[in-house]
Amino acid sequence: MTTHVLQLPVPGGRIDSHSVGSPGPFTPPRSPLRSRVAYAAAHVVADPLAENTPGSRAVLDWERTLAFRHELWRWGFGVAEAMDTAQRGMGLDWATAAELIRRSATEARTVGGRIVAGVSTDQLVQQTPTLDQVAGAYLDQLSVAEDAGAVPVMMASRALARAARGREDYLAVYDKVLGQASQPVILHWLGEMFDPQLEAYWGAADLDSAADTVISLLHTHASRIDGIKLSILDADRERALRRRLPAGVRLYTGDDFNYSDLIRGDEEGYSDALLGVFAAIAPAASHALQALDAGDTDAYREAMDRTVPLGRHLFAAPTFRYKCGVVFLAWLNGHQDHFTMVDGAQSGRSLTHLSELFRLADQAGVLSDPDLAVARMRTLLQIYGVVS
């Protein structure tokens, strides 16, 4: 491999040299991962010849979008489809999301891959819908996921956040939907850092009060719930909630800051995972989980902990812009031929931010083809007028 030195922007308007290293010694698993259930939330690849500008309906490159799902299955992950990482509600409309769920579930069956799929209420056009309309929208999407053969993930609903007047309204809608689910579903508590429109979800701005509501719901419907994905970026609160779960209900960490420690666990248990960061670090995370399967926690920590600085930068505030970095890294690694996104979201991060992502991805060993990554990074730098 050729040794490369890049001149990369850093905060403060300076340029620093960065010597590019080698990819990590990662290989796909020979058998399914065992010690943890791990889903990677996958991004979508935009069609670069379509509009895909802010406000336009999403048009996807289906071949590359589905190929990336196969890449995640190859590394041993299940795929979490049509969720936040796929720009759900931030460029990916429900009609396209429904087609994505159907196509991905079909692909999953060809390789025996695990798949879960987000169901929400984003087909509603009313600014302030009724609770019945919210429940009906959930049920319509639930049927799409179930008919496709995917495990439904009941995502937090912006429409419900607008319609609900308190915890009882949330419980009423969730009771109705869960009561009609034909299989156990995964719930999703998404913090407002991921979506500002979900502020005070569960009817309370106080997270302790919100957690009490969630626990009540989980105990009421334990037989209908596989687990809950928690995305509030608070490791202590996640551990506290995990200790209160009913028997048989999983905690899927959605904490893209503290995932390494939460997945490893402690004397009181561990979290399984449903993470957007896995899409960016799949080889390293797979290597770490394979080590955990073998009982080698030191090797797990060595591989997974190296990715944490990358994850923290990727999900830095404003956190909801993280999809830009996921797509950027997919481009660097050759999973798509362009760095464009639906809704024009590639403009969501600065060159300095992306340059630091490059640096941290290299340090984590997840630039699988450094020659390609360097060539593409140089192209981006030239577009911005930086000579490297």
Topology:
Blueprint: E1 5-10, E2 14-19, E3 38-41, H1 62-74, E4 78-81, H2 94-111, E5 115-119, H3 131-148, E6 151-154, H4 158-163, H5 167-180, E7 185-190, H6 207-220, E8 225-231, H7 235-243, E9 250-253, H8 259-264, E10 272-275, H9 278-293, H10 297-305, H11 308-314, H12 322-332, H13 351-364, H14 370-383
Parallel strand pairs: 3-4, 3-10, 4-5, 5-6, 6-7, 7-8, 8-9, 9-10
Antiparallel strand pairs: 1-2
Helix pairs in contact: 1-2, 2-3, 3-5, 9-10, 11-13, 12-13, 13-14
Could you explain how this protein is built, in words?
The protein has 388 residues and is of the alpha/beta class. The protein has 14 helices and ten strands. The protein has helices spanning 62-74, 94-111, 131-148, 158-163, 167-180, 207-220, 235-243, 259-264, 278-293, 297-305, 308-314, 322-332, 351-364, 370-383; strands at 5-10, 14-19, 38-41, 78-81, 115-119, 151-154, 185-190, 225-231, 250-253, 272-275. The strands form two sheets. An eight-stranded parallel barrel has the order 3-4-5-6-7-8-9-10, surrounded by five helices. Strands 1-2 form a two-stranded antiparallel ribbon. A hairpin with a 3-residue loop joins strand 1 and strand 2. The longest helix is centred in the N-terminal third of the chain and has 18 residues, at 94-111. The two termini are 19 Å apart. The mean pLDDT is 97.
